[in-house]
Amino acid sequence: MITRHTLDNGLIVILKETHAAPVVSWWMLYRVGSRHEPTGKTGASHWVEHMMFKGTERYPAGTLDRDIERLGGSWNAHTSLDHTAYFETMPADRIDLALELEADRMVNASFTPEEVESERTVIISERQGSENSPAFWLNEEVQAAAFRVHPYHHVIIGDMTDLKTMTRDDLYNHYRHYYMPNNAIAVAVGAFDTDQMLKRIREYYGGIPAGKPPVPFIRVEPEQRGERRVVVQREGNTAYLQFAYQVPAATDDDWIKLSTLDSILGGPSGPGGGNIGARTSRLYRGLVETELAVNASGNLSMTVDPYLYRLHITLRDGRSLEQVEAALDVELRRLLNEKVSDAELTKAKKQARAAYAYSNERVSGQAFWLAYSENIDTYQLFEDYPERIQAITADDILDVAQRYLKPARRTVGWFVPEINQGAS
Predict the structure, then answer these.
(1) Alpha carbons 98 and 114: distance in angstroms, whole number
(2) Backbone angles phi, psi at 73, to 5 degrees
(3) Phi, psi of 51 (to 5 degrees)
(4) What is the pLDDT, as a whole number, of residue 267?
């Protein structure tokens, strides 16, 4: 059973009591991600995430790594387009440490100038590591071309120029602007008594004052009215192709239909996703089995604002981008012109439900998706996913394919490798 509560200071609390194993996963999600960053401060959310592990007066840097490991727990964090989230998964009788540390660093995180500069080096190195991948360069260029106004324009790690120039005050102000109970969602899943857990949460978090609600950073993307193209030419050995279509936010009824279409075309990439069903997908059969590509997949993210449905193709040696793009267009035209069969639709639904079940196997996955969905709209968005998938028809697939997978709504990206011949 899932219960939802709101503390007097605005903190949303979602609890799911389950005694399958003697563990509890505790998540603290803040409604701030890369979409909240203005030009000049791109990458701030991710950098603040790093700074949250630099300690507080109560828990100096390094002490929690040791304490959590000694108690048999694990902890980590991530930054996304729409949120930044932190979690601890602990033995059930040790979960108070997680509750206390997240309450502490919600208010008392250290941003010493020395630590900020040290982490600048780390984050710049992280971006440079990503830049070793041709796929990173292509993703960044396609995303920037697809969004000219909306802050989904930039990648989560931020632009290199901003990583070099942001100041300690820029980061600290970002933290103070968004890290507050009334801009957070707390989720616990695992072996606890619901009433007792809620009582403990009130004790740790109830006294933290609400902050001034953040003003949403919103720049609505104009409608795309024609195909856009980008070509990236860099050192590499492999060519890549990407199609990125403008699609609705996860709260739109069409999103769940597109999720089912994604299961058919590239294998499910919605909740759970992974490689489930990829080898029976149309892209795999049409591009990989025909030896045009070594990999072909789709990616549909659950986002607060309209985002992208991407198709990623890694070309086989000796194949041209023109040749593979033409083959991909053939598969897309099939979706636009023909209804999918009942058998194919049934298989896609089974694969999507299997991916969902896989993501629900562990308490940490359950807690994450509850927090993720609540940030977008309501936790029911994830809970109702299997039922909503089951209701999709072949007519629904044809309808969304015809409305969203049109060339006028897409950005096409080519990565053209330039072979380094080395010194003579």
Answers:
(1) 27
(2) -105, 180
(3) -65, -25
(4) 85
**Nearest Cα to 51, choosing from 83, 14, 79, 16?**
79
> By the 8 A CB rule, do 156 and 80 touch?
yes
pLDDT of residue 272: 61
Q: What is the pLDDT of residue 155?
A: 97
372 and 284 in contact (C-beta within 8 Å)?
no
| Distance of alpha carbon 372 from the chain centroid | 9
Q: How far apart are CA 185 and CA 208, in angstroms?
A: 14
User: Is the backbone of residue 318 left (phi > 0), alpha (psi -120 to 50) or beta?
Assistant: left
Residue 20 structure tokens: 């399958």
Whole-number pLDDT of residue 354: 86
pLDDT category at 287 given cuts 50, 70, 90 is: very high
CA-based end-to-end distance of the chain = 69
Q: Are 366 and 281 in contact (CB under 8 A)?
A: no
d(CA 188, CA 30): 15
Would the pLDDT of 322 be above 50?
A: yes
Query: Is 256 buried (19+), middle (13-18) or exposed (0-12) by CB count in 10 A?
Result: buried
Residues β-bridged to residue 298:
311
Q: Closest by alpha carbon to 303, among 249, 235, 248? A: 249
Number of Cβ within 10 Å of residue 248's Cβ equals: 19
Q: What is the pLDDT of residues 146-175, one digit of tens each?
A: 999 999 999 999 999 999 999 999 999 999
Identify whether the C-beta of residue 36 lies closer than 8 Å to the C-beta of residue 404: no
Length in residues, the chain: 424
Per-residue pLDDT reduced to its tens digit, 199-234? 999 999 999 999 999 988 888 999 999 999 999 999
Prediction pTM value? 0.95
Q: 312: which strand partners?
A: 242, 297
Residue with tokens 């007792």: 196
What is the CB neighbour count within 10 angstroms for residue 366? 22
Q: Which domains does the chain have, with CATH numbers?
A: 2-205 (3.30.830.10), 228-418 (3.30.830.10)
Asked whether residue 249 carries a pLDDT value surpassing 60, the answer given is yes
As beta bridge partners, residue 86 has 28, 77
Distance CA 223, CA 217 (A): 19
Is-contact 358 274, C-beta < 8 A?
yes
